[in-house]
Amino acid sequence: MRRALLLALAVLALPVQALELKPFSASYTADWKQVPVSGTAQRSLEQLDDGSWRLDFDASMLVASLNERSTFRTEGDTFLPQSYRLKRSGLGKGKRVEHRFDWDNKVVEGSDRGEPVKLPLHVGLLDKSTYQVALQHEVAAGKKSMSYQVVDGDEIETYDFRVLGQEKVSTKAGQVDAIKVERVRDPTQSKRETILWFAKDWDYLLVRLHQVEKDGKEYQIMLEEGSVGGKTVKGN
Fold first, then answer.
1. Cβ–Cβ under 8 Å, residues 180 and 164
2. Which among 203, 157, 201, 199 is positioned nearest to 181, based on CA atoms?
3. What is the per-residue pLDDT across 204-229, written as a single tens digit (0 to 9) for each?
4. I want to staple 171 with a disulfide (CB 3.0 to 4.6 A). Which of 53, 120, 149, 223 is the partner?
5. Are 45 and 60 in contact (CB under 8 A)?
6. What is the span of the domain harbouring residue 221?
């Protein structure tokens, strides 16, 4: 009995396994079905000097652009967002969002389309970019369904996902084996659709994304080239 107790205490004393994130960079073709001209998109994750991480996403074409940046840090296997900003122009109304995550005072503050935002902050709450890295990490861990609390504009929303299976994706970097993931929405509440593909052999890098907006507009990005942990992505 004493030995079993000591073993149990030893297990509890083990440090929480830290997330093993790898920096990456990727470039994509970006297509809007309603616009005959293709654009480009870039996505990158890099570790900063203070140990935190910065995730950037930029997409642009003749009539529209979108820029997102988030910073976050990790503690054990937990993501702790620090800041988020979004700027979108073209294809309808422009949009600007900024969020700051104050962990000392447990509050999220910022603005959404010029209106002030103030929301309670708790461990597990993510921003609209950092949750994508969390999703990538949990797909890599073999999870089949995932759920996240996300600061979306001036609200906290629940984002649910499920794995649909494996699928080969043909990219300009070659054909890659990918895990296909769907954003789960109530069809009676939203007509939006989001499908993502993550490359199994490349630390589950996002290689394709297909989005259908509630107004029927379709958007897709497809990998052109990328690197993960300093290694160039090469398909079959």
1. yes
2. 199
3. 999 999 999 888 888 899 999 999 99
4. 223
5. no
6. 22-230
Total of domains in the chain? 1
Question: Per-residue pLDDT tens for 80-134?
Answer: 999 999 999 876 678 999 999 999 999 999 999 999 999 999 999 999 999 999 9
Residue 202 falls within a domain, yes or no? yes
Phi, psi torsion values for 50, nearest 5 degrees: -85, 5
* Total-model pTM: 0.87
- In contact, 210 and 195? CB cutoff 8 Å: yes
Residues 179, 163 contacting (CB under 8 angstroms): yes
210 belongs to a structural domain: yes
Locus of tokens 């160039």:
232
Which two tokens mark 111?
Answer: 């603005």
Distance CA 111, CA 98 (A): 5
Tell me if 4 is assigned to some domain.
no
**Partners of 224 in beta bridges:** none
User: Residue 100, exposed/middle/buried by CB under 10 A (0-12, 13-18, 19+)?
Assistant: middle
Over the stretch 33-57, which tens digit does the pLDDT of each residue have?
A: 766 667 899 999 999 999 999 999 9
- How much helix, strand and coil, in percent to the nearest 5, is found in the chain? 10, 60, 30
Nearest partner of 61 among 169, 221, 202, 168, judged by Cα: 221
Does residue 56 belong to any structural domain of this protein? yes
**Token output for 85:** 């900003």
Sequence length of the chain is 236
